[in-house]
Design goal:
Immunoglobulin-like, 652 residues, eight-stranded parallel β-sheet, 36 strands, alpha+beta, six-stranded antiparallel β-sheet
């Protein structure tokens, strides 16, 4: 908490020609500078104003750099001015934050700022002012405010993403016909036999790594290896072990205090879904017709085989033979759809119904249909109530009607209050993170920033720190704390591939995963150095059969940092403050209650010496580089090697 300074501030009944400001004296009104200042605050957006389940309120405001101090003018009901903490800065903004404990169910507040000439200004609901009238104050009433509650178990989370077919093959008898040997060169259409019993066998391995959350790519009935083209959303695929395997996995994971999150697309499904099969049979008279968008009946696929050489246009570059097999030997046979061969120009395959990105075995579901909504909500609730799953990761959430996700949240949270709901949404996801829809997003912005700074070294340290503070202030602290901060996934090249096998760059990015607010997201095999490129090579089999290929030094790095993340309170629940940066090194603070840690990470050049001004009385090294000392209110870092770092505790 920030201490209240003993200064006087103007109240409503002040003499209209004078104002009390930071030195406690009355000033003529011309000494208050009402300039064209840029203050950014939105009371209705939780990234600026949020309250957690412990009645701790976080308030943020962004100001232009000319504002050197910001004070929260809190009235509960007496005026209580509190200086806000500057947590970072860019060329465009200074970022301010304060955390206060709620004493009453309501209060009023406004802001005051001091400019570069030590002149003051006020900021209220009407904007910049020379004083704040009662009508210009924000009014907080807890009874009318939606609290964004996230599960407590998410703080300090280490999430391990598993692509089920490629993690571990435990039971050969479950393998479907045509399964290729484990460790074969990965191909889009070939199964390698991974199953849920294999995940069960490796729970101790994951626990030792520091993992406390397992996120499974889709496990529902499907013939593909990715299973986003689900046939039946209420059945676990038999090749993975069926429903029994999932029940056993959840039970044994919970015994080890680990959580299980399922991945699902409600936006689209395979044409074998019962509703679409009825549409094929009955056409416009189908009771499910309003679930879909049909451009032309009968529903069918228009096929242009003369264009197969252009598979690069559908993401199958150089895989003409595989794409032809996918269409003619799989899709045409499995969907029961009529195939119309046409010889004009157009897409290679063209459904006469709306499909996700035109993919013929991913039929788009219209969630404005009452029947479709009921179907989707029933599925969401079913796996929570019947299997006790701990979370949902929702695929392509942005493509579904926004209002649907409020219903989705209500029905899942009523079934299990501490379930985690996170979504695949690119860009700014604030609309979905106001406490009435999702808890958090997959943090693709984090991934791209790590790529830019560590993998590609395409941005400077200054640019990196500006982006980092931007990430921190993009969402409410609650949403940020439950974000999946990923580096790799099943959709993109692995981080090690992007960095041209620079293990040091990967280590540094993992350091950020462990020490920046949010859930660390590990894609299976990243911890031992898997380096697959574009799909399908990014979905290679985990090399349990070849431990000599593992990078054990990298694995140890991951294990040490992730176990720190899940046990140190400042890394679990602490706020973030940027301390400084050098040419290749960044330092920041994580603080929670009376505990404070400083984290330092270096990129690709030896740091000979760097001094950071600090008010601690002494420091205590927790992890990493030992060449750090404290003298005369300065932290002195010497000979910090490339791609190395340190975490140390501040002792006041």
């Amino acid at each position: 908490m920030v201490e209240t300074h003993n200064v006087e501030f103007a109240d409503d009944d002040i003499d209209a020609q004078k104002i009390v400001f930071f030195d406690g004296n009355y000033h003529n009104i011309e000494n208050v500078h009402i300039g064209n200042y840029d203050f950014r605050f939105n009371f209705s957006d939780k990234k600026f104003f949020s309250i957690n389940s412990e009645d701790i309120i976080t308030i943020r405001i962004h100001t232009e750099p000319r504002i050197n101090e910001v004070w929260l003018l809190l009235e509960e009901p007496e005026l209580n001015p509190i200086e806000m903490k500057k947590i970072g800065a860019t060329d465009r903004f200074n970022y301010w934050e304060i955390e206060i404990a709620l004493k009453l169910d309501g209060f009023k507040f406004s802001f005051a700022g001091v400019n570069e000439k030590n002149a003051g200004t006020y900021f209220g609901t009407s904007g910049i002012a020379n004083f704040i009238s009662p009508s210009e104050k924000w009014v907080f009433n807890k009874k009318e405010f939606l609290i964004h509650e996230i599960p407590d178990w998410v703080f300090g989370g280490v999430m391990y993403q598993i692509f089920p077919d490629r993690f571990r093959n435990s039971k050969d008898e479950l393998n479907k016909e045509g399964t290729v040997p484990w460790g074969s060169v990965p191909k889009r259409l070939e199964h390698q036999g991974g199953d849920l019993y294999g995940v069960i066998e490796k729970l101790d391995y994951l626990k030792d790594l520091g993992v406390n959350i397992i996120y499974l790519n889709p496990i529902f009935l499907s013939t593909s290896i990715h299973r986003y083209d689900t046939w039946d959303h209420k059945k676990v695929d038999p090749t993975l072990g069926g429903d029994d395997a999932l029940r056993e996995l959840i039970y044994k994971a919970h015994e080890k205090e680990m959580k299980i999150i399922l991945d699902c697309s409600l936006n689209h499904f395979h044409p074998q879904n019962y509703a679409f099969q009825d549409l094929i049979k009955n056409g416009e008279k189908s009771e499910f017709a309003d679930w879909f968008t049909v451009y032309d009946y009968p529903v069918r696929l228009k096929y242009r085989p003369h264009l197969l050489s252009k598979t690069h246009k559908v993401g199958w570059d150089g895989e003409e033979d595989q794409y032809k097999i996918y269409l003619e030997d799989i899709t045409f046979k499995e969907t029961n759809l009529e195939v119309e061969i046409v010889d004009d120009d157009g897409p290679i395959i063209e459904p006469t119904f709306k499909a996700w990105w035109g993919v013929p075995d991913m039929v788009k579901v219209d969630m404005t249909s009452d029947g479709a909504r009921k179907w989707a909500l029933n599925i969401a609730k079913y796996w929570v109530e019947e299997f006790d799953i701990d979370g949902w990761r929702m695929d392509v959430a942005k493509e579904i009607d926004l209002a649907f996700w409020s219903e989705f949240r209500n029905i899942t949270k009523s079934a299990k209050q501490d379930i985690l709901l996170f979504a695949e949404i690119f860009g700014d996801t604030s609309l979905w993170l106001q406490g009435d829809k999702f808890d958090s997003p997959m943090n693709y912005s984090f991934r791209e920033l790590m790529n830019d700074f560590f993998a590609h070294t395409s941005i400077t340290t200054k640019e990196f720190t500006e982006e980092l503070i931007g990430l921190y202030t993009m969402y409410s602290f609650e949403a940020l704390s439950s974000c999946q901060n990923l580096l790799s996934s099943h959709d993109v090249r692995r981080f090690l591939n992007r960095s041209e096998n620079n293990v040091g760059a990967l280590k540094s990015a993992i350091f950020l995963q462990a020490t920046f607010p949010g859930v660390a997201g590990i894609y299976y095999g990243d911890e031992i150095g898997l380096n697959g490129g574009d799909e399908p090579s990014n979905r290679e089999a985990f090399p349990w059969h070849d431990e000599e290929s593992w990078n054990n030094d990298l694995s140890t790095w991951v294990k040490e940092l992730m176990n720190l993340k899940s046990h140190l309170e400042p890394l679990k629940k602490g706020k973030f403050e940027l301390i400084g940066y050098s040419e290749t090194t960044v330092a920041y603070r994580r603080y929670y209650n009376s505990e404070s840690l400083i984290c330092v990470i270096n990129r690709d050049t030896l740091l000979q010496e760097w001094k950071i001004k600090n008010q601690s009385k002494e420091i205590d090294l927790i992890w990493g580089h030992k060449g750090i000392e404290y003298k005369n209110n300065e932290i002195i870092i010497k000979n910090l090697a490339p791609y190395s770092g340190a975490i140390f505790k501040e002792i006041n």
